[in-house]
Design goal:
The chain is mainly β. The chain has one domain: YVTN repeat-like/Quinoprotein amine dehydrogenase (Methylamine Dehydrogenase, Chain H, 7 Propeller). It is built from no helices and 33 strands. The chain has strands at residues 51-56, 66-68, 71-79, 88-97, 103-113, 132-134, 137-141, 147-151, 156-160, 176-178, 181-187, 192-198, 204-209, 224-228, 231-238, 241-245, 252-257, 268-270, 273-277, 285-288, 294-295, 301-305, 316-318, 321-325, 330-335, 341-346, 356-358, 361-365, 370-375, 382-387, 397-399, 402-406, 410-414. The chain has a 5-stranded mixed beta sheet, with no helix packed on it. The protein is globular, with a radius of gyration of 20 Å.
Length: 417
């Protein structure tokens, strides 16, 4: 059994509120931490068993499914003609009926042409960042290609293509909302910054350069919002450094240096610690106290490990235990306070999608479409393995008591029947 943290024992708190499972509205869910407050999700399925529907998805992309009021949204890069190459793509927002899987709408947000097309990694796509929903607004981000806001009927409310930089391997990090500011990181080959757009208009509110001595500056991490001693901080991990920024004006609060680039995992905050994976070449997992000022490298690192740490997928913290799965298929459970390893087991496959937790279970999805369901426990417990037989790098979505899985060809609704 997991130990439960007593209210009041933790000095540094982040304000999280539970949201209904049918409002899975952002990357890693409504609180950005990979946790779903729902019972009854399926634990067994195949390409046919417990599949309510399977819908073909046009184009290509690895943005994860988000849901609002019975509609599922993803982004995709769709060739403009049958003969189009990657040099001519329509960057679209797709909307599906959550009950039937019907494609309700596909809206072109941007066109990607010629010199604007970056060379991408074989595990990336031109539509990797996950959409974000608040109320009747949907925010979509295509990295250096631009950011936009649409309403739920598909009308484009604003576009911003002013934030130019040269990406490496394509784009990846998703935006977050802090009040009425849309915040995301831009870490390209030579230009690195974090920026806040006005969520109402798309205008730039502030833009802060990321100061790093890394030779390889490119990274792909999604920021994380935390609150420490009553002050909000936006935690953004990049090459050789993780920084905390004031979301009001973008000023840097603290920074911790390390050796790592191409950072992908989203930082996680729990039990008064920020957890960061440092990227390539050999990732380390860092547990950091976020109550410092300035350079805290020598003072606020609580513990670290480089044993089976993921390059790509984000972390899970449930009560006082931290769960993770490495790119080469080793799942681990650690004491989040000390880094002590409770168990480490090979579950097979290669992993890019981030795990998520619901009702005492942890769901892992490998790149070949094999899912592994584990008990969220300090003792290793395999519940099931399930395969859909299609490649997938996208993280799970949730609607009601159903899982949403995006493969390279289809979108699935999986639910116990």
């Amino acid at each position: 059994m997991l130990r439960h943290t007593l209210a009041g024992c933790v000095l540094l708190l982040v304000c999280n509120t539970s949201s209904p499972a049918d409002q899975w509205n952002a990357f890693r869910g409504p609180d950005g931490n990979g946790r779903a407050s729902v019972n009854g999700l399926p634990t067994e399925w195949s390409e046919t068993d417990n599949v309510v529907w399977r819908q073909a998805v046009p184009g290509q992309g690895w943005s994860s499914p988000v849901v609002n009021d019975g509609t599922i949204y993803i982004t995709a890069a769709v060739p403009t003609t049958a003969a189009s190459s990657d040099n001519e793509l329509s960057l679209q927002l797709l909307a599906f009926d959550a009950t039937t899987g019907e494609l309700l709408n596909n809206v072109e947000v941007f066109q990607q042409r010629d010199a604007a097309v970056p060379r991408i990694h074989q595990k990336n796509g031109h539509a990797s960042p996950t959409p974000l929903i608040r109320g009747n607004r949907i925010y979509v981000h295509f990295g250096h290609q631009g950011t936009a806001c649409l309403d739920t009927k598909g009308k484009v409310l604003w576009r911003n293509r002013s934030l130019t930089y040269q990406p490496v391997h394509g784009n990846g990090g998703s935006p977050i909302l802090v009040g009425d500011a849309l915040i995301f990181s831009c870490d390209g080959g030579s230009t690195t910054f974090i920026v806040a757009l006005d969520a109402e208009t798309g205008d730039v509110r502030w833009k802060t350069d990321r100061k790093t001595d890394a030779n390889k500056k490119f990274s792909f991490s999604t920021p994380t919002l935390i609150t420490v001693a009553g002050q909000q901080q936006v935690i953004s991990a990049g090459s050789n450094v993780v920084c905390a920024f004031n979301p009001v004006d973008g000023t840097e609060i603290w920074r911790l240096r390390y050796d790592g680039y191409s950072v992908i995992p989203k930082p996680v905050f729990a039990n008064g610690l920020v957890f960061v994976s440092t990227g390539y070449n050999r990732p380390s997992l860092l547990a950091i106290r976020p109550d410092g000022k300035g350079d805290v490298t020598e003072t606020h690192l609580v513990w670290q490990t480089n044993r089976s740490v993921p390059h790509t997928s984000s972390l899970l913290v449930i009560d006082e235990e931290l769960f993770m799965v490495s790119d080469n298929g080793v799942a681990s459970c650690l004491d989040a306070r000390t880094g002590t390893v409770h168990w480490s087991e090979r579950v097979g496959g290669t992993f890019s999608a981030s795990p998520f937790y619901a009702n005492g279970l942890i769901y892992l999805q490998d790149e070949d479409g094999k899912a592994t369901v584990l008990k969220a426990s300090t003792k290793y417990g395999l519940v099931s393995t399930n395969e859909i037989g299609e490649r997938t790098l996208a993280s799970y979505g949730v609607t009601g008591k159903a899982l949403l899985v995006r493969s390279d060809k289809h979108l699935y609704r999986i639910e116990a029947r």
